[in-house]
Design goal:
Layout (H helix, E strand, L loop, with lengths): L1 H15 L5 H15 L5 H11 L6 H14 L2 H13 L5 H14 L5 H18 L4 H12 L9 H10 L3 H7 L1 H22 L9 H26 L5 H19 L8 H32 L1 H12 L3 H16 L4 H18 L4 H15 L7 H10 L3 H24 L2 H11 L2
Helix pairs in contact: 1-2, 1-14, 2-14, 3-14, 4-7, 4-13, 4-14, 5-6, 5-12, 6-7, 6-8, 6-11, 7-8, 7-19, 8-19, 8-20, 9-17, 9-18, 10-21, 11-20, 12-13, 14-17, 15-17, 16-17, 16-18, 17-18, 18-20, 19-20
Amino acid sequence: MTALMLAILAAWFVAIFLGPPLWLAMALAGWAFLALAGIPDLALAQRIAKTADSFPLLAAPLFILMGNVMNSAGITQRIFAFASVCVGWMRGGLCHANIVASVFFAGTSGSAVADAGGLGTLEIKAMTDEGYPPDIAAALTASSATIGPIIPPSLPMIIYGVSAETSIGALFLAGVVPGLLMAGALMVMVRAIAVRLDLPRHPFPGAADLWRAFRRAFWALLLPVILFAGLFGGVFTPTEAAAISVAYALILGLFVYREFRWVDLPKIVLATVETTGVVMALVMAAALLAYCLALSQVPQAAGAFLVQLAASPLVFLLIVNVILLAVGCFMEALAAMLILIPILVPTAMKLGIDPVHFGLVFVLNLMIGTITPPVGVVLYVTAKVADISFERVTRATLPFLVPLVVVLVAVTLWPPLATWLPGLVLGR
């Protein structure tokens, strides 16, 4: 069965370059294996239905809905305005504000694409209006958007936790310190670029300006606090937190800021359903393919090979980094996660690597992949928003990859950067 699965995987890998939807290619590969191995078709339906019937996975569409509501309710504008007042006085102030706003937004949306497409629209316009080069504005927006899925809540962390049967709460906590390190490292790089290009800055704000911006953004900034307190105080689960976040965002938009209208809700729900449909199709098809991989013993064979190749857990992690960074250049992050988790996670556990640490390294690699060509989806989003070519954004993004890779290496070499906070809060 191993040889059969490898042949099907080879055919599937060639097929995905011919243009069919990835979920369809994965589903057909799984069906072909079951049919040729003589396994009843009923197993296909059972596996897909079991995957969709997941309470933790319900958080995904809710967080997607929350991000869409926030973009329409005036919440993102207030977050960026507050960040601009806080750090706009520094050289290249709006670049720093871009990063700080992404940290705040990360605590509410959990999606790099939502950050780049929602908050990024506002950031890029503000930066270009003040004379910042459009390619720098787009590249920095794309780079800072990678913080979104690292700082909780995080859609990729939810998918990883469900697929790898790892605590989602622990994964959320593991992303806090690395996410803040990513922001700090990007700000160091921005400082160097800002000095070299003599980028503008705002006057130092007075206490009245700070208070005014904080007061306008207060209810928006309170959302991450509510999520953190509730999640890690044991008040609600990640799925319940997502539902509470949607309700809170609707209340802000309808009754506090009054920039959201009921007439906008059907369009937002439709956009959420479309995005969720794509995510769920990928998740279910990948679960079927993972089931077939398990039956064929391919993960065990790959794991044995990697164990022989890696003399230690650290060597294995370095090999995984290289694999994931390469895969991220050619495959969308969610699809790569769903395909590679059943192959790499069992080997990591066999080598004694902490599952939360490995999950953080896994997700961080693939988030960097979202801003690397040729399939850097976040680069496409920001290029469209800035109305410049994909190639131009890609060239401008290269310097910002350096601080992100430095953080990745640090997290890989020193696991406490990921495991300290979960241990402190959850006693892991």
